[in-house]
Design brief:
It contains nine helices and eleven strands. The protein has 255 residues and is of the alpha/beta class. It has a seven-stranded parallel β-sheet with strand order 7-6-5-10-8-11-9, with helices on both faces. A four-stranded mixed β-sheet has the order 1-4-2-3. The longest helix has 24 residues.
C-alpha cells in the first residue's frame, strides 16, 4: 500500500528532514528567487540526495503549507511510519543507556505535541508513546512546531496507553506521573534508572487509572493564580530535570 503524502514546511523543519535518514522526501518547493543562505543550503541538500525541487510562487507555497509559516520552504514527504513498541524498546539498548521514555496522555493540541518532541530530542529522551484515540498524531503542524525533531525522536502510537504503561512496569521501568494537586516537588523525584514520565492531557491531566499505576507522582509548584502549566511547558521542565539527574548519576557511576 502506498504511503500517504504529507508536507513539512519552515526552513529549520525542512532542513532537518533533509538531513535525516528516516524521512523519504518526494519533492521540494522553493520560492522563485531568494537571498536567504538557509534556503540555498536546503536546495543543495536536496540536490545531493537527488530530490527534485521546483520553484513556486507565494500563492502555491501558501497552498501547499495550508497557509502556515513556510518561510519559503515546503517539502512533500511520504508519511513517516510510527515506531513500533519493539523498536522503541530497542533504542536505549542501542545507546547502552537506561530507558528514558515520555508517555503523553491524550495531548490534542499539535503545537503541544510538537514542542514536547522538540524538547524530548534536546533532553535525550529515547522516544514518545501516544494513544491512537482522543489525541493528535504526527501532523504537519507537529513537524513544524518540533523544528524537525520528529525526524529523530521515535514516536510510538498505541491502542491503549494504560496497558502499555503496565507492560513498561513489568519490564522494570519506573513510572513517574505529573499531577497538579498531589505528589512531591518534581525536582526531588528519583529519575535514576529506567523511567517513563507521563504527561497529562490539556486541562484534565492524567486519568485515575494511569495515576493509580504511577510509582511516583510529581507536581510543579505554582506561585500565581493559574492552577496548571501548559502541557509542553510542564513536560519540558520535568524532562530537563530528569536529564540533569541522569547525567549526574552517570557521572557518579564513572568515578
Amino acid at each position: 500500500m502506498d504511503k500517504k503524502i504529507k508536507v513539512i514546511f519552515g526552513k529549520n523543519s525542512v532542513k532537518e528532514a533533509l538531513l535525516s535518514e528516516n524521512i523519504k522526501a518526494d519533492k521540494l518547493y522553493l520560492p522563485k528567487s531568494w537571498v536567504d543562505p538557509i534556503l540555498t543550503e536546503i536546495r543543495k541538500l536536496a540536490e545531493k540526495k537527488e530530490i527534485p525541487w521546483k520553484s513556486a510562487d507565494k500563492q502555491k507555497l501558501d497552498e501547499l503549507s495550508f497557509n502556515g509559516n513556510h518561510q519559503g520552504a515546503v517539502l512533500k514527504i511520504a508519511e513517516r511510519d510510527y515506531a513500533s513498541y519493539e523498536d522503541l524498546l530497542a533504542v536505549p539498548k542501542q545507546r547502552r543507556e537506561p530507558p528514558f521514555f515520555l508517555g503523553c496522555f491524550q495531548i490534542q493540541d499539535p503545537h503541544n505535541l510538537g514542542a514536547l518532541i522538540r524538547t524530548a530530542d534536546g533532553a535525550g529522551v529515547h522516544g514518545l508513546i501516544i494513544p491512537k484515540n482522543k489525541a493528535t498524531g504526527l501532523t504537519h503542524i507537529v513537524s513544524k512546531t518540533s523544528s524537525g525533531a520528529d525526524a529523530y525522536v521515535p514516536v510510538c502510537r498505541v491502542n491503549n496507553l494504560y496497558e502499555t504503561v503496565l507492560d513498561l512496569k513489568s519490564k522494570g521501568i519506573k513510572i513517574i506521573g505529573t499531577c497538579p494537586f498531589e505528589g512531591i516537588n518534581y525536582r526531588y523525584a528519583d529519575y535514576s534508572g529506567p523511567v517513563c514520565i507521563l504527561i497529562g492531557a490539556e486541562g484534565r491531566g492524567l486519568d485515575r487509572r494511569l495515576l493509580s499505576v504511577c510509582d511516583e507522582k510529581i507536581k510543579i509548584p505554582l506561585m500565581g493564580q493559574v492552577e496548571s502549566l501548559n502541557a509542553s511547558v510542564a513536560g519540558g521542565l520535568v524532562m530537563y530535570e530528569a536529564m540533569y539527574s541522569r547525567m549526574n548519576e552517570q557521572l557518579i557511576q564513572r568515578l
